[in-house]
Specification:
This protein is an alpha/beta fold and 293 residues long. The protein folds into 2 domains: 34-142; 154-292, no CATH class. The chain has helices at 2-24, 45-61, 87-90, 116-120, 125-142, 144-147, 154-173, 177-181, 188-191, 199-202, 210-225, 230-243, 251-259, 263-269, 288-292; strands at 34-39, 72-79, 96-100, 108-114. It has a 4-stranded mixed sheet. Helix 2 runs parallel beside helix 5 and helix 7 (154-173) crosses helix 11 (210-225). The chain starts with a helix and ends with a helix. The relative contact order is 0.09. Bound molecules: zinc ion. Zinc ion binds next to helix 5 and helix 7.
């Protein structure tokens, strides 16, 4: 009887100490990235159906790999004809973005406030915005510095996300969103391209990111001139550059390493283009799968 008691107390002590050891080691990264859906009833069911389809397609195309710093993300989606139904969770957040505390894995969330007039008018943006924000999530999983907010570089970041959304719409709905919604390219994209490195310097000249998309597509054309195929060029600009984990301080070095062109050379090359999105459009038959496989 005594022996049994002793055995059990010993076992208890051992098991306690072993679980304390586990607490001390870094928690292991989950094997799957987890999106948590909060889809409000104010959204029409056909939008919700399409949202689920797009998320599934993107999960197959560019599966977000979990990392120690980023392995889950709540999504809050609602129709803007109701007053911020997730106020208790995300405060006054509105529009569409990946928001929240940069340093904390629990702090970030995706905001998809869908304008009711886009739903009524069947505007492509009601779907393309999902692909746009998903791309930013993918980008954060590739680059911790982007996740932490250590790089702004708007024309590459927003130009990439906005290009990705147009490629998605073109492939899945046979509609050229570059031409219909990203055509208001400002001449500044050619004359003073460096202003598009920050949001504050270029906000008045980048309607729906048209100028950033233009610069991004010119970079793809320049890479093709250097001998790459279109899909190889897109892989470099949409993926490989971010894997190099650039910062505001070193992105010009990473740019040269990735593209074998200096930023100055690239900015100069813009002068040989006209500020017209129609002159730099990607192949309409381009498949995103061919970029990422
Ligand atoms: Zn964006």
């Amino acid at each position: 009887m005594k022996k049994t008691l002793l055995f059990f107390s010993l076992f208890f002590i051992l098991s306690c100490s072993s679980s304390e050891d586990e607490d001390e080691v870094t928690p292991t990264t989950p094997t799957e990235f987890k999106f948590e859906y909060n889809i409000h009833s104010s959204l029409p069911s056909d939008w919700v159906t399409e949202f689920n389809k797009i998320m599934k397609n993107l999960d197959i195309l560019i599966k977000v790999k979990p990392t120690a710093y980023f392995y889950k993300l709540p999504i809050y989606a609602w129709n803007d004809n109701v007053d911020k139904p997730y106020k208790d969770k995300i405060g006054d957040a509105s529009g569409a973005s990946i928001s929240g505390n940069g340093a904390s894995v629990n702090g970030k969330y995706m905001v998809l406030e869908i304008p009711n007039n886009e739903l009524i008018g069947k505007h492509w943006h009601r779907f393309s915005v999902i692909a746009h924000e998903y791309y930013h999530v993918y980008q954060m999983s590739l680059s911790k510095n982007f996740f932490d907010g250590n790089i702004e570089l708007k024309w590459m970041s927003e130009g990439g996300a906005a290009t990705f959304e147009s490629l998605y719409i073109q492939q899945h709905y046979s509609h050229n969103y570059f031409k219909s919604a990203q055509d208001r390219v400002d001449i500044a994209a050619i004359n003073t391209p460096s202003i598009f490195e920050t949001y504050s310097a270029s906000s008045s000249k980048d309607s729906n990111y048209a100028s950033s998309v233009f610069m991004f597509l010119v970079l793809v054309k320049e890479l093709q001139k250097s001998g790459l195929t279109e899909t190889q060029a897109f892989k470099l600009v949409l993926k490989d550059f971010w894997i190099k984990n650039p910062t505001d301080g070193n992105w010009k070095v990473k740019f040269q390493e990735t593209f074998s062109i200096s930023v100055d050379q690239f900015y100069n090359s813009l002068k040989s283009y006209t500020a017209d999105i129609k002159t730099v459009l990607p192949d309409e038959n381009l498949k995103l799968e061919s970029i990422y496989n």
